[in-house]
């Protein structure tokens, strides 16, 4: 998964699971705060990623979401299960999974075989 898309997915999953109305996320790998704003509800996601300069949007049923990445022009599947999430990035293609604890988000990117951490701000 592209590192900057991974940050955006972590943000969306973090908001969906926590219910917080955050306007940014701290990416520990990039060591910077990324501004991402928009609507994140159980039925609709439409956020603008300032770092990438593009939207990530799609529909869901509270648990499963099909999101379209306007930066890479492909779909990303996201499934929410309690405090955990998983999905499939059609662009790379690769699987990912993650977990939320408070404001902290951990993502395992199967495509890069590494863990990444984030904090909702």
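Sequence proposed for the structure above (121 residues):
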């Amino acid at each position: 998964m592209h590192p900057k898309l991974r940050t955006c997915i972590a943000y969306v999953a973090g908001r969906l699971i926590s219910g917080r109305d955050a306007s940014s996320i701290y990416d520990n790998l990039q060591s910077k705060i990324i501004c991402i704003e928009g609507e994140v509800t159980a039925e609709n996601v439409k956020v603008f990623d300032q770092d990438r300069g593009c939207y990530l949007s799609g529909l869901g049923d509270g648990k499963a979401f099909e999101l379209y990445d306007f930066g890479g022009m492909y779909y990303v599947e996201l499934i929410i299960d309690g405090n955990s999430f998983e999905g499939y990035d059609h662009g790379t293609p690769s699987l990912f999974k993650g977990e939320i604890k408070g404001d902290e988000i951990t993502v395992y990117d199967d495509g890069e075989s590494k863990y990444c951490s984030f904090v909702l701000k």
